[in-house]
Structure formats: structure tokens, C-alpha cells
């Protein structure tokens, strides 16, 4: 229960709610929890209802269910943006707990997704630099029209943003082709 207590507290409507009170987990409350963890970058649209895999993945991330999140991540279409978002959510969750062991566990989980996102980016960049640039700035319907780069920048994911693929894209945008 300890692992889920942080997530369940995000779902409570008020801070003065009884700690032992049953928390009704609804789609709207999960959306609100994600928005509080990801900030303004998180955008939900009705199109997401057609993405049950993404929603299950996000729930596994919120509950810090590492193995299940990796299984779902492996079959997702948008692995790069999912990994970047998972990193953001897990780091935000870690800031909201004062339990050292749980904080460390969340940060380890976040590091694994950060490593995966950088691995995908490196492989793409090695295979085709131009397509990698397009991948970074392509608007993703299932992520509210955001780009992978927007999610990473908002998450202050310095490792991702400092990657040569991102730097090449930013130079190209800034200086022109």
C-alpha cells in the first residue's frame, strides 16, 4: 500500500480528506494526477480514448509498476515520447515523497526510461539524421499534439536535450539548412 499511497493522494480532491477513506479512481482523476505531475505540457484529448495501451502504461508508471510498464512500453507505437513522459512522471513523483527508499526507487525507474529514450534517439540518429530530426518535431496526436522535443524540454531532461541529435536539430532550426 505504501507504494500506491503517493499516487492515491494525488487522486484525492482535498488535502483534508480522511487518510483511510476509499479513493474512487476515475479517468478524470488520473488525468488530473498526470497534469499535476507533468505540468502544462500534459494535454489530454478524446483521441486518447483510442489509446488504451498508452493509458495502461501511464497507470503503471503512476503506480511505479516497473516490470509491467516495460512490457507495455515494448509494444507501444511511440516509444520515444512514452519513455520521455515516463521519465518526467517518475521524477515528479520522486519529488513528492519523503521516503528515501521509495524516492530512490522512483529515480532508478526514471533513469531506466531516460536511458531507453536516449538509446532510441542514438539509434535513430545513427540510422538517419534527417528522419531523426523529423521524429523529434513531429506532432503526436496521442500526446495532445506535443512533440517529443517539447516533452523533453518541459521535463528539463538535460541528457536528452544535450544529445547530438537534438543539438543538430536545434542548430539547423536556428541557423537554417
Describe it.
It is a multi-pass membrane protein. InterPro entries: TRPM, TRPM-like. The protein has one domain. 67% of the residues lie in helices and 0% in strands. It is mainly alpha-helical. The relative contact order is 0.12. α7 packs across α10. The N and C termini lie far apart (54 Å). The model has no long low-confidence stretch (mean pLDDT 81).
What are the main properties of this structure?
177 residues; single chain; 67% helix
Topology:
Blueprint: H1 2-11, H2 27-38, H3 52-62, H4 66-74, H5 79-95, H6 100-127, H7 129-137, H8 148-154, H9 158-161, H10 164-175
Helix pairs in contact: 3-4, 3-5, 5-6, 5-8, 6-7, 7-10
- Major β-sheet annotation: none
Report the order of strands and helices: HHHHHHHHHH
Q: By helix and strand content, what is the structural category?
A: mainly alpha
**Separate helix tally:** 10
Residue-averaged pLDDT: 81
Gyration radius (Cα, Å) is: 17 Å
Helix content percent band: 55-70%
Straight-line N-to-C gap: 54 Å
- Note the beta-strand portion: under 5%
Into how many domains do the coordinates divide? 1
Which residues sit in consecutive blocks of at least 5 with pLDDT less than 50? Answer: none
Morphology call: globular
Beta strand count = 0
